[in-house]
Amino acid sequence: MEINQVVGTLYCTERIDGLRHCSLQILKDRKGKLAVATDPVGVRPGNWVFTVSGSAGRYAMGDAKIMTDLTIGGIIDAWQPEDVAKPEPGDSDGMLEQHRDQAA
Q1: Which domains does the chain possess?
Q2: What's the gap between Cα 5 and its chain centre?
């Protein structure tokens, strides 16, 4: 799963059958890379979302026959990119910082 921000809707009048009735959204990751995802939850531009990919993306749409490899799994209620804890050097999984927060 990854976290992305919705930047807009992708409108396509001609689609393959496996995507004919899917809402498509344009997403941007924190580095600015764009991606297109199917949207079963009804997002709006500006929403932060988490995505599921691969076969999990098809199942998240409710039908494994839908031709997608990236699906929006949910809208994040409260999160800002600045909120992500940065691990300290030599702390590859952030456990040291989590331990400090719990001890405080």
Answers
A1: 2-103 (2.40.50.220)
A2: 7
pLDDT of residue 64: 81
Coil, strand or helix at 31? coil
Structure confidence by residue, pLDDT tens digits, 42-89: 999 999 999 999 888 888 888 888 889 999 999 999 877 665 555 556
CB 49 within 8 A of CB 76: yes
Tokens of 37: 């995802």
CA-to-CA distance for 35 and 6, rounded, in angstroms? 10
Three-state helix/strand/coil letters over 46-104: CCEEEEEECHHHHHHCCCCCCCCCEEEEEECCCCCHHHCCCCCCCCCCCHHHHHHHHHC
Strand 2-9, strand 24-28: pairing: antiparallel
pLDDT attached to residue 57: 86
Confidence of residue 96 (pLDDT cuts 50, 70, 90): very low
